[in-house]
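Let us work through a complete example step by step.
Step 1: write down the sequence.
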Amino acid sequence: MNASPRPERRWFAPLLWLALCLAGSLYLAHSAHFAASLAGFMPAGRSAAQQLMLTQMEDSPANRTVLIAIAGGTAAQRAEVSRRYAAALQASGLFTRVANGDFDPQSLDDPRLFAWRYLLSPAVKAADFTVAGLHAALERQLRALNSPLGLLSQRFLAADPTGSYLAMLESWKPAHAPARQDGVWVSPDGQRALLLAQTRAAGLDLDAMQHAVDTLRHRFGSLPGHQGLRLVLSGSPVIAVHSRNTIKRDAQTFSTAASLALALLLLVAYRSVRLLLLAALPLLSAVLAGTVAVNLGFGSVQGITLAFGSTLLGVAVDYPMHLFSHLERDISARRSLQHLWPTLRLGVLTTAAGYVGLLGTGFPGLMQLGVFAIAGLLAAAGATRWVLPDLMPAAYAPRLRLHRLMRVAEAARRTRPGIRIATAALLGTTALAAIWQHRDTFWQDNLAALSPVSSASLATDRQLRSDLGAPDVGQLVVVQADNAQQALARSRRVATELRTQVAKGWLHGYELAARYLPDAAVQRQRQEAIPPAPVLAVRLQTALHGLPFRPGVFAPFLRDAEAARHLSPITPDEARGTLLGARIDNLLYAHARRWYALVPLIGVREPQALAAWFAAHPTPGATYLDMHDESTRLMRDFREQTVGRLGAVAAAVLLVLFAGLRRPREVARVLVPLALAELIDVAALVALGERLTLFHLVALLMVAGISIDYALFFARPESDPAGRRRTLHALTLCAVSTVGVFAILAVSPLPVLRALGLTAAIGVGTAYPLAMLLAQRAGLSRP
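Step 2: predict the structure and record it as tokens.
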């Protein structure tokens, strides 16, 4: 009996690997930046409208607004908690605006607003300052003094007999303001108090949105008297945070289940805890290397890159299995691997070449995924090649109990070439026919279809928007300009056009900043309506004839009117911190040295007619945005661009295969099972009712990498039945583990996880038997 050889221990490679892992970990600990903002992951828009939509998604006030309702309890309790809640949120510093309809009488005493009344009030006109106009205004004031509003009229009578200030405030009432009860906003049925809160951070900064949502819940739970009340939150920040948390929670749950299943499979197959632990080293090395590479290349790592990149590296789990299944008791692990390494190396390089195609997409998220996958695959292969052999237990060999499967594989190997070709042709034709049958419903470019948000949450959002009179963020006109005054002027012209569309019934209404803060030209026109002080004094004296006002009582009016004639036009900066500023903050803002005036559309009934009208009547700086249509167009453009690059990907894969196999027949032996597996995968998906998305494409790339491995190993010239048995053992374990892991993901209710899981499970489950049948070299020997 021969003694088992002692393992050839070489510690240089494991120690170097350990040093590199430590260096990578230290680098990430000190220099890594993990970004949660989706802004860096989104593709750049190809059209001006798409770029504008992305700008709006990133920083528009509408995407930073949280819709809030307080339900339960009594009306008085809800109103009191609403006031305390608004004050607590203002004090947090996380929100630029918190509104609950609570009226602060002191806001009427703002001397700045009172001084600006003649420039801001839409009621100001030259006729107001004629003798007849002044006399009529004074008579109205007399009647008002005897009405329930007498105190209010008396308060401003001496300085504002024309009533311009109250007219200005009246014009600022929202067109669709919520009802008020006990001094705060309430829903139409009076059962919920309503609030709005606008975050200071950008809408795509998910960590900041998470902090804001947590603060909203924590502050509410800390309020005195909140017991028995229920907080309802919605709006873009809340939906974004909910989506991320749902995906994260489900991904962790399903990934944990898949990892446990994989670990159990490896334990059953190899009966060694040590091998189970060693099997994790290539994958851990891959994730570490991928993260370092992305951080070095892009300056930060997106959380989505880590999540989906780790999925793409699933093929790295196969590498140690190839080694483990080929171990023999009387041959060292290093020698066993040397026998496998050319095939494994070619598989790694071919798979990496496939991911090179992601680098040229121009989509930052996919470019990061490409770098992550390539660096990870190379690291996993390096760890398998140079580290694992020196850590393997001595004289280990797995038990290969594959008698029935071996007979099947041998039968496939003996299948005549004509039958193989006929089978491939039949499968390919059937798959193409299925794809052609579903050609009209092949792609899914609607981002909403990928959302994990429940219909109940969407219904809550619609209800709160309706109750608050908040416009739908999906329909708006965006006006761009070089400065604020130009933006206001252009939006005023847009409003003039929209009045016609409102009259046609295409929409119910709209909102715009110029309604509150007119541009400088309009403000100057109103100034010009005010006569010089001597002229106004004479007209006022005449107008007072027959009226019971004391002489000199309107001296403040003459003083303020003259001062208003010399004011500079009011600017957004001057309005900040006033009631006027609160009105326009949502509608007028600067971003990247450009000014944007938003015109949210309310109750759009004819979006296609509106889009056609704006296309036929271009207004300088104005763009009609249907966010749903633009996002669909963006995804379609990007998907077409990605599909167009598949030719370059195929060329890169072919080049690597030709370099490794050198003969067209050998290349075809590997590529035919791969192409058929991809074709059948797509056909099965569409037959199951799936519409393909970007995530299906990413999963198909992964399937291609795994399929190439299967075909390369089945195609290896192996005359020894024992060698074929070890190859079959490795490939069967790889296929069973991969199909099992992704089948678990496929049952997820989340569209993204389901797309990845279903595509990978079907693709790999198809690639394995196809490689067995089509890639093996024909032979007549029996096991």
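Step 3: interpret the result. The mean pLDDT is 86.
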